Every structure is written in C-alpha cells, then in structure tokens.
# Entry
Amino acid sequence: MDLTTALSSLLSAPVLAFALGLLAVAVRSDLRIAEGATQLLSVYLLLAIGLKGGVALRDADAGELVLPLTLSLALGIVIPVVAYAALRVLTPFGQVDRGAIAAHYGSTSLVTFSAALVALEAAAVAVPAYAATMLTVLEIPGILVGLLLARRASTTGAGWAATVREIVAGKSILLLLGGLAIGAIIGHPGYESVEPVFGDLFRGALVLFLLALGMEAARSAGALRHGAVGLIGFAIAFPLVIGSLTVLLGSALGLSAGGAAILGVLCASASYIAAPAAVRMALPEASLARPLAASLGVTFPVNLVVGIPLFIAIASAT
# Structure
C-alpha cells in the first residue's frame, strides 16, 4: 500500500466520524445518539458481514478454509494468554482484572474488522471468502481463555455452562453465524435482491456507528487513571506488535495479502461488545471500566489510525 492510499485511509469517513465523536464530548456538545439506534446499527453490521461472507463461502474451496480457520482457533487460545502475561508485568491489577482485560483482547472487534474491509477495498486488496468466519472463530476461544485465567482467583459468577451459552447465544455469534448460513444458502442470486440494503448502505451505517463509538470512547477515558501508564502502554503496543507478527505469520504460511491483513487486524483488535457481556456474567467482581477504556478508548483508535494501514502495508509487502 503506497503513501497516498495510507493517507486516504487515515482521512476516511469512518475515522473522521470517530474523531467527531471525540470532539463532541470534548466540547460538551448536546449531541446524543440513542442506545437503541446504536444497537440497531450493530445488528445491521453483524448481519451484513455474515451475509456477504456466507455468499463468498458458498463458492470457496473447502480445502482453502482449513489453514486460516485452524490458525484462527490456535491464535484465539494463545493471544489472551500472552495478553495476561503482559498485563502482569505492565500493570498493578489483580488476577481477576487481568483475566477480564485479556478476555477483551483475546476476542475481536466487529467495527475494527468492518473498517479494515473498507480500507482493503480502497487499497484494491481482495478480501478472502473466509474473513467473516475467522472473525467468528477467533471470538469464542479468546473470551473463554481470558475468563479461565481470571476464574482461577474468582469465587463468584455464573458457572461455565452458563458462560459458554452466554457467549455462543449472544448477538455477535448468533448474527454472524446466522448471516453466514443465510448467505451460503441464498448465494449470489438471493443476495442481489438485498444488496441495496446490506451492501450499498454498509459504509454509511459504519460512519454513524463510529460517531457513536467516538463519543463513548471519550466518556470512558477516566477509567484509565489507576495503573494508567502500564495499561495505556499495553493498549497501544500490544495490538500493534501482535497484529504485525500475525500478519507475518499468515503470509509465511501462505495466506493471501488480504487474508494475512485481516488476520492481523482481528488479532490486534479488542472486543467491546461480546466480551463485556460475558465478563459481566462470569466475573461480577471484575472492573469493566478498565477493559472498556483500554479497548475502546485507546486500542480502537490506534488500530483505526495506525494499525489497519500498517497491517495492510506489511501484508502487501510480504
């Protein structure tokens, strides 16, 4: 990816909408976006990604799915363990809070993934059919491993059966898997009839969602005060290092430029939708303010502005 393309991704509508949300809170604007509207946008984005991925998977060779999905599953287990170890060195937090943060960073971010799809399209890098499936595969083990690390010190919270059900039946997994199934069943002819809604409007919905997230990120910044230096350092460095290494790993193992870039983006992203719900249920004594402030207030904008262009550039060069 050349400098012009990189700059255009930094000045894209989604990035600027997120910055506008930050500005709105900074100047104490009366701008508000209803929680119901934000929820509707997240449902739309999840289903749109699932549908498009399912249509692409219908035409994909099953043999091509083995490597990326196996790699995704392995990384979904490894990344939260590495995050937990890094947090132990960098922060003063206890085991439960470290595990809660690791669950957020072991999971994935739908909106970071969505922004990466737009950036890849702008850079003329083909997105593989299995991209949405990787998003789903990475999400579940990342959360479960983080909770397992935390629950070693936890005496309260829901049982494992209830925790697993909360994750699998949650809207993120349900809509992604449901969308993948619907897309695979209807194929291109069926998708053409809904493409004006789920294809043409996707970027506009993403811009609105990022405006809301910018405002939410600005409001959560205060939670970074305790252990701020270590947590902020982790939230900046960890995703960039992990993302770059997984791009190189994916390229070395034979993934396409688009596949390696998406893998890096997913591994560098941090959840602020599925993981908080699971942590709230399984670890009621954990602080949700810290992982949300780190993932949404620091890591998300870092990935949006630096990480996504960096991972695409590395994947395109290898």
Summary: The domain at 3-317 is CATH 1.20.1530.20 (Na+/H+ antiporter like fold).
